[in-house]
Design brief:
The chain is mostly helical. Helix content is 55%, strand content 7%. The protein folds into two domains: 212 residues, Rossmann fold, CATH 3.40.50; 81 residues, Tyrosyl-Transfer RNA Synthetase (Orthogonal Bundle).
């Protein structure tokens, strides 16, 4: 049995990247492992500090977690800020995190370009808070998308550094994980890199079927292949990447063959893709609304989660304090 920790920032509705990069793994792993899945509301403050939306967004992500099939009896589901022990571990780990290594992080370099007027210290130390989330429960597996690989490498470095500085074998070295295969990066349908909220190219679990059909039909493609077996244009490759996660292998093989024979009609591909996305999202969407409105249930879930997470967290923080030399008078 592995100890699994992962989270998603509470910056709004979840998109297909969140689902296939993270949430689907949570659901698959929850029954066989010791799992902690949380909503990273502290992390959301580095980019989206809005008191009017903070709680609403946490509630939204929580409802989507549950609607997608996360089981609060099987795993510990909690809100990051309900477990303040994480802030102490974050502080302690920051004492051994070097500014140079934090400044070199790709996500930090991206963010300082995106939000020039708000280059806050939270952005710089984002990887330390993420490491604290993970090490707080001494996790060894962290289900995430490919974009989080570097943060996991830093988490391992912080764990190794702590162990070696204090001559202990305390923290495990956690690895990024995708259930049974490589880490995934779900692309956007605008011909660009990854699907993301800030990229404005998301297909959301919350989107109605008509919205999904419309977004998919508008996806960027090329003029069509002109030579047999030619390399796909990046935008077309992106459609196939999404097709591979939502459709059957037969469907993928059918369209691959059509592309290879230069007989592909992108309209047909998009129609199929939209229907297969809807088959994944619709059952989830239908449950979101009911769960979102069940205040009593949500209250029960987060309280139960906070209690279980704090039990594990306070044990770690007490042990870390002892290792570092804090003593009671
Ligand atoms: P966030 O909210 O940016 O992303 C949440 C999860 O969704 C995955 N993801 C994707 N996967 C594949 N393709 C995409 N286009 C795509 N977009 C997003 C991310 O890889 C991630 O798994 N820093 C984390 C939140 C976090 C966390 C943690 C995760 C905070 N503390 C501790 C694990 C363990 C993040 O990127 O959130």
């Amino acid at each position: 049995m592995e100890t699994v920790v992962s989270g998603i920032r509470s910056t709004g509705n979840l998109h297909l990247g969140n689902y296939f990069g993270a949430l689907r793994n949570f659901i698959k792993m929850q029954h066989e492992n010791r799992c902690f899945f949380f909503i990273a509301d502290y992390h959301s403050l580095t980019t989206h500090p809005d008191p009017k939306l903070l709680h609403h967004n946490v509630r939204q992500v929580l409802s989507e977690y549950l609607a997608a099939g996360l089981d609060p009896e099987a795993s510990t589901i909690f809100v990051q800020s309900d477990v303040p022990e994480v802030t102490e571990l974050y502080l302690l780990l920051n004492m051994h995190a070097y500014v140079g290594e934090l400044e070199k992080t790709t996500s930090f370099k991206d963010k300082i370009r995106q939000q020039k007027n708000n280059v806050n210290a939270g952005l710089l130390t984002y990887p330390t808070l993420m490491a604290a989330d993970i090490l707080l429960h001494k996790a060894n597996k962290v289900p995430v998308g490919k974009d989080q690989e570097q943060h996991l490498e830093m988490t391992r470095n912080f764990a190794k550094r702590f162990n070696s500085l204090y001559s202990v074998d305390y923290f495990p070295e956690p690895t990024a994980y995708n259930f049974g295969s490589e880490l995934v990066k779900i692309p956007g349908l605008d011909g660009s890199g990854k699907m993301g909220k800030s990229e404005g190219n998301g297909l959301y679990l919350f989107d109605e079927p008509a919205v999904i059909r419309k977004k998919v039909m508008k996806a960027v493609t090329d003029q069509g292949p002109t030579e047999p077996n030619s390399v796909k244009h990046e935008a077309v490759e992106n459609l196939f990447t999404i097709l591979k996660v939502v459709s059957t292998p037969d469907t993928v093989a059918y369209f691959e063959e059509k592309h290879n024979n230069c007989e592909i009609r992108y309209g047909d591909l998009k129609k199929q893709l939209a229907e297969d996305i809807i088959a994944v999202t619709e059952p989830i969407r239908e449950r979101i609304f009911d769960i979102q409105n069940d205040a009593e249930y949500l209250h029960k879930v987060v309280n139960m989660g906070a209690e279980k997470a704090r039990e594990s967290a306070s044990k770690t923080v007490a042990e870390v304090r002892e290792i570092m030399g804090f003593k009671k008078f």
